[in-house]
Amino acid sequence: MSTSMKWLRFAAAAGAMAVASSAAFAQEKELVFGLHCDRTGATQTVGVFLCPGYHDYISLVNSKGGVEGYKVRVLEIDNEYKVPPAMEAHERFKKEGAVLTSLYGTPHTMALTKKLEEDKILGTAPGFGTAAAADGKRFPYVFPIAASYWSQAAGAIAFIKKELGDLKGKKIGYLYYDNPAGKEPLVIFEDLAKSEGFELRTFAVPAPGVEMGAQVLDITGRFKPDFVVTHLFGRSPSVSVKELKGKGYPLSKVISFVWGASEADIKAAGGYELANGYNTIQFAGVGPDFQVIKDINAMYQAQGKGVPSAQEVSVFYNRGVVIAALHVEAARNAVKAKGGAKPSSEDVRRGMESIKGFTLGGMVPPMEVTPQDHEGGGWVQVWTVKDGKLTKNGDWFQAYRSVIQKHLAAVN
């Protein structure tokens, strides 16, 4: 072999080694986040807004140098709100080295809880999932990081009490999607009905949740409650608003859990004028008047693009931003704790449990996540349809925490 040929082969080998080394270095300075989403299934009315919000916040962080020098790569998989694809997605995330997972859906969270613990990968389930997962000692790898269905139920009753005064002798209806998520808060409602002295009656809506005329007729014609709490998602919330309004029930006497609380639900029901008075529980701020949203829009403008269309439904978009921001905060805590070294999922889990005083510029209440409390305190806020928009109806609050703690302590 000629000297020149040997040199060419050496150069080629050296080049290949350099590329491989560069790729390895790039991976070393990369953190993978797994994102479950539903863009095509039963709850795509949420996913098509929430998931873009998540991606946009990560893009904003990456545009500023990443998380302490680590760029974040988001691996999204559409689980179509079905459990088998969610299980497959978890395996893909694990194979790709994800340090955390953003879960999507209560049935999926329940199915994956054991796997997350076995694989030592934290998963977040903000505003859904198993309420008992607030107890970090019993559920070390699941983080609600927002008001659970138990805390939402407590918040709804506290709001109703503020509106009606003494609840003794009052009647409250609970209209809910008949699946594990819908049934989750029943124990809290039942407990509070006893302690507060109100009559509770429940009305289950079977899947797919678009036929509830009989239930609403039962509510308005027979039970005639002083207030109605709704816990529906997908296309169901807009149906409930139309049905209740059509039967003459005042929407000012209705309060919805977080997944029936968006602009999309209101528009699909017939618009803001029709939905006037409708009360909604939120775990993140609503609208564009937050610095982080302005920063995202500035990033888009710098790229010669317009405002993201997903922001039209700020309720869900903002939640995606908040979830991503909490993930980044956990990762940042983990990198700092390791002196700049690449963190493992265990490190990120501890980083999540170190979040304190996190507000994202007022978009969320002062969040504090601890090894004991993976929920972050169970804070909620009520926003009401008024003057053609969702309007803040009071500050962040916690409700019946002693009742929540009692039920958490009773979980085996």
Q: Can you walk me through this structure?
A:
This protein has helices at 3-28, 44-63, 83-95, 106-119, 149-164, 180-183, 186-196, 213-223, 236-246, 263-269, 291-302, 314-337, 345-352, 401-410; strands spanning 30-37, 71-78, 100-102, 122-124, 142-143, 171-177, 199-205, 227-231, 254-256, 279-282, 356-358, 367-368, 381-386, 389-392. It is an alpha/beta fold and 412 residues long. It folds into 2 domains: 23-146 and 287-377, Response regulator (Rossmann fold), CATH 3.40.50; 149-282 and 382-410, Response regulator (Rossmann fold). The strands form 3 sheets. It has a 7-stranded mixed beta sheet, sandwiched between helices. It has a 5-stranded parallel beta sheet with strand order 2-1-3-4-5. A two-stranded antiparallel ribbon has the order 11-12. Strand 8 (227-231), helix 9 (236-246) and strand 9 (254-256) form a beta-alpha-beta unit. Helix 2 (44-63) packs across helix 11, helix 2 crosses helix 12 (314-337) and helix 5 packs parallel to helix 7 (186-196). The chain is globular, with a radius of gyration of 23 Å.
